[in-house]
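Q: Please design a sequence for this.
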């Protein structure tokens, strides 16, 4: 949902009402529904629906997922501090100002993907356009915060540590390739090939498309699993030698010899 000038004008007229009402905490689920452009904030366990009353509230929620993408529809579960912008009306969604968010948990696609293939295809449809960059590391660095819920806690932590180390150094420290496409020259298009199940885990072969044809050898093999109601990636493998991304990230990094100067204010 995007707040228009008309919305802001109407809500500005409501401002005196806000001061007279009490802010409170709810455990909620926020979803920016793509079909009808409604940004819903549901009070979990009730029938009560809220929605953000201003752009500041929208921006606060959108820190945790990509609100601008037409390819995905994530959900944020969290404890929200909200302040009503107008009195409660039975059966109507109520506008609120979102003041604080605690204990965030994101499901990358809502409703959750039903099949392994759907999860992987949705991820790469969302990610590949963001990987197009002159600096192959910059695409995934910029997207890491938005995709950390697609990754296991271990993998997300290792990637964040590697990105931070690289940012502190003028030299190439850490990964010098895109970890999710296993290349420093991403293609415009990729296709999910065979998906094998190994116990509770799945491994999907990701192929680049060149001149409209799928390459026989995959660029990367993505390992993932579903736990606690969501899918997430565990590791990414080089199909030629089986090298694991996690093992690369865990290996000792070379010492930075040319650190970047700290930013001055």
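A: Design:
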């Amino acid at each position: 949902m995007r707040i228009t000038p008309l919305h802001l004008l109407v809500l500005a007229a409501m401002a005196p009402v806000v001061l007279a009402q009490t802010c409170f905490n709810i455990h909620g689920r926020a979803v920016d529904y793509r079909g009808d452009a409604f940004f819903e904030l549901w009070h979990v366990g009730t029938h009560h629906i809220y929605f953000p009353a201003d752009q500041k509230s929208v921006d606060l929620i959108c820190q945790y997922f990509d609100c601008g993408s037409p390819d995905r529809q994530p959900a944020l579960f969290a404890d929200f501090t909200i302040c009503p912008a107008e009195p409660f009306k039975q059966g109507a969604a109520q506008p609120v100002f979102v003041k604080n968010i605690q204990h965030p948990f994101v499901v990358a696609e809502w409703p959750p993907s039903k099949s392994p293939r759907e999860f992987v295809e949705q991820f790469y449809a969302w990610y590949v356009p963001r990987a197009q960059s002159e600096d192959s590391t910059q695409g995934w660095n910029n997207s890491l915060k938005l995709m950390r819920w697609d990754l296991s806690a271990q993998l997300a932590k290792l990637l964040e540590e590697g990105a931070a180390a690289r940012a502190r150094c003028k030299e190439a420290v850490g990964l010098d390739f895109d970890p999710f496409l296993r290349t420093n020259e991403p293609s415009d298009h990729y296709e999910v090939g065979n998906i094998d199940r190994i116990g509770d885990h799945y491994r999907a072969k990701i192929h680049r498309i060149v001149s409209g044809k799928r390459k026989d050898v995959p660029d990367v093999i993505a390992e993932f699993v579903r736990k606690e109601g969501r899918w997430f990636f565990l590791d990414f493998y080089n199909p030629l030698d089986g090298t694991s991304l996690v093992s690369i990230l865990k290996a000792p990094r070379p010492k930075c010899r040319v650190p970047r100067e700290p930013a001055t204010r």
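Q: Thanks. Anything notable?
A: The radius of gyration is 21 Å. DSSP finds six helices and ten strands in the chain.
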